[in-house]
Every structure is written in C-alpha cells, then in structure tokens.
Amino acid sequence: MIDLRTVQRSFIMPHIRRGSCAVDCTMGNGHDTLWLSGEMGPDGHVWAMDIQQAAVDSSEKLLRAEAKYENYTLICGSHENILEYVPSDRDICVIMFNLGWLPGGDHSKTTLRTSTLPAVKGAVQLLGDDGIILIAVYPGHPEGAAEGEMLEEYFSTLDRRVWCATKVRIVNSPTSPYFFAVEKK
Ligand SMILES: C[S@@+](CC[C@H](N)C(=O)[O-])C[C@H]1O[C@@H](n2cnc3c(N)ncnc32)[C@H](O)[C@@H]1O
Predict the structure, then answer these.
(1) What is the architecture of the domain spanning 4-184?
(2) Is pLDDT above 90 for 176?
(3) Which of 19, 104, 113, 144 has its CA 20 to 30 A from that of 68?
C-alpha cells in the first residue's frame, strides 16, 4: 500500500536546494518543520506558522530536542498572512500545507477555505523558480472536501507554461487523504 507521506516527499525531494528556504504553513506538532529544517541545512531557513500557540510550543520543544540546525522561525499566526511573515527576497524552494486539524486536537481549529485560498495564492506569489507547493487535503470531513474542490478549481487556472499542478488521489477510497503537488518551472 502506498504511504502518502513517502510519496509526497518523493515529489518534494527534486526541488530541495540545500542552503535555500522553505515554509511550513500548518506547523502542527512540527514534524514537517523538523524535516524541512534538516533538508535546508545550516545556511538555509524555514518559516513555520500555526494559529494555535499550543502547536508553536509543541513544535519548539520538538525542534529544540531534535533539530540539527537553528535555522527556523516559528510564528503564531494565520497562513493567510504568509506574505507578511516571509521575506520576499529569499529563495523559497518548498512550501507545505497539511490541511485540517491537529491529530488528537480541537476539531474547531481546522483550516478553512476563507484563509486557505489567500494563503495558497500568497504561496504561489512567493515560490521561487523550480520550487514546489505541496498541499495535503482531508476530504473525510465536509470543510476538507470543500477545500480540496476549491483548490482544484484554483489550480486549474494556473498558466501551464509556468506551473504543473498534479493531484494524487486513491480513486477507490474517496474519503482518504490526497495531495496536490504544484511545481513551478
Ligand atoms: C494537520 S495539522 C498539521 C500537522 C503538521 N504538519 C505536523 O507535522 O505535525 C493542521 C494544523 O493547521 C493549523 N491551522 C489551522 N488553521 C490555520 C491557519 N489559518 N494558519 C495556520 N495554521 C492553521 C491547525 O492549528 C493545525 O495545527
């Protein structure tokens, strides 16, 4: 059976440029932030954000314990402000979103279409050449399903000469998570 995270990382790896920068738009418990920190290396940087202070605290604890490099900035705030948090003059090669709520956490603190769309549009603006935006979607709840439909509609409008927007989905399990990989030439 496929492991979605492994497949996601196989999409991301060709775009990793050690010494450049990445953004984790849904920090949660910091697992993706920690991975990105290691991949960016000591001269790179990762910005990560979450609306929950508890997520920031939990990620900080994980990174202090396990990160090899102090190359990260953790922000308590909404990803729709991504363009305010991340400097526009840095080379951004990866931007990740893992939509939904924190596993085991408060379901009311889920991502929402109203902030996800401006955040993704900001990510499209920020991403450097040969970069990738990876978005994991959870269609097993109504808002997650609606986020996925909204994103597919938006990605289908991106200029094919610059962007390649791919959807990876298990067709015989419609409520399972799936992802978009949006690559920039
Ligand atoms: C599925 S979890 C992310 C898991 C995380 N990638 C990890 O490795 O642990 C989704 C996270 O998105 C956060 N979130 C919800 N709305 C947000 C928003 N507008 N901006 C930033 N984060 C948000 C939630 O608080 C939650 O922690």
Answers:
(1) 3-Layer(aba) Sandwich (3.40)
(2) yes
(3) 104
Nearest CA owner, ligand 1 atom 15 = 111
Ligand 1 pocket check for 109: Cβ under 6 Å: yes
Judge if the beta carbon of residue 79 lies within 6 A of ligand 1.
yes
**What's the residue count for the chain?**
185
Q: Where are the beta strands (DSSP E) in the chain?
A: 21-24, 45-50, 72-76, 92-98, 132-137, 163-168, 178-184
> Where in the chain are the domains?
4-184
81 C-beta closer than 6 A to ligand 1: no
DSSP 8-state secondary structure symbol assigned to residue 163: E
pTM: 0.97
Tell me the C-alpha distance between 60 and 42, whole Å: 17
Render pLDDT for 68-91 as a digit per residue (tens, 0 to 9): 999 999 999 999 999 999 999 999
- Tell me, what DSSP letter sits at residue 127? P
- Report in angstroms the alpha-carbon separations of 155 from 31, 92, 122: 26, 19, 13
